[in-house]
Amino acid sequence: MLKLYLISILFFGGYWELGAQIGVKISGKIRVLEPTTMKVETITGELLLSTKIGKDGVFSVGPKEIEPDVYFICFGETKQPIYLTNNQITVKGFYNCRNVESSSLEFTGIDTYYELLEWLPKGEFSRDKTINPEVEGRLQGNMYSALAYIADMSTYEPNKFLLDCMSEEALKTASGKWLKHRVDSLYHYSIGAPAYNFTFQDSYGKKVSLTNFRGKLVLIDFCASWCGPCRNEMKSLLQIYNELKGDDLEFISISLDSKEENWRKMLEEEKLPWVMLWDEEGFVIGNKPNKIQQAYGFYSIPFIVLIDKEGRLLAKDLRGEQVREEILKARAN
């Protein structure tokens, strides 16, 4: 997917209503280094429109009637998700197939997409901090699922929030079906869901499972020897452990080192008093995380979660003092 910063898209208000036109039509004149192709695809990969752009940069395709929703506008091998309606769209600017980041394309006729960008989550995308609280009731139809698709949020709660804003009819659209499937997929590591039961070896070669600690609060620290922030977090965890340790609480650190020798070296250096386990699959960076990363929904470390006494996910993505606060809150309940 072509991220928003790769092609600089400028938005201008207004569009043309052509008396005889029914559907979306895209035309324009852009500068190109070599002939390329412009396409429109659905989010499921179906080709809707396609045209060649020659050296003169002039192109036109459509009109074709569509259901207003998220589509991919593709120039060459690049893809940009945009919310399209049955409008006339014009494009001008420069497309560099050899260095996409230097491209700059200007679109008119995509006002709804511009409106959606105003409702994107505030704060750090990667931590899914919050959805703009004014979203509910302000958007229409499948604009909620379109917002979820464009924002590409990786956690359950904000996606579920947007799903709950949608009507049954809107859920029948392509992005509506996509959001329903995404929420169903994300539920298994949402707050309150049963925590994934792992089994890894400890420093003595013994197999240890999460279910071995049922009846206790379990703090799980996903880490690695090479991760500086992980090692710093361990020092913070040690203070909290010494303060709050008891029969009702267990700490577990799961190393995602790819080599056992690196994990064991970390054990010797840190000398932590709790359960230390090793996931030999290692930490995976990119689009295909390993099994434990998929099960708990994390793509960076350190990643700390708290499991309740019944084995349900109580809190996640904890750091520093949040660990102490969540343990005390769980004990109070």
Keywords, separated by commas or semicolons:
single chain, alpha+beta, Immunoglobulin-like, Glutaredoxin, five-stranded mixed β-sheet, 16 strands, elongated
Describe the protein's architecture and organization.
The chain is of the alpha+beta class and 333 residues long. It folds into 3 domains: 8-112, Sandwich (Immunoglobulin-like), CATH 2.60.40.1120; 119-189, no CATH class; 199-332, 3-Layer(aba) Sandwich (Glutaredoxin), CATH 3.40.30. The chain is 26% helix and 29% strand. The strands form 3 sheets. The protein has a 7-stranded mixed β-sheet, with helices on one face. The chain has a 5-stranded mixed β-sheet with strand order 1-9-8-2-5, with no helix packed on it. A hairpin with an 8-residue loop joins strand 8 and strand 9. The protein is elongated, with a radius of gyration of 25 Å. The chain starts with 7 loop residues before the first strand and ends with a helix. Residues 1-20 and 123-129 have low confidence and may be disordered.
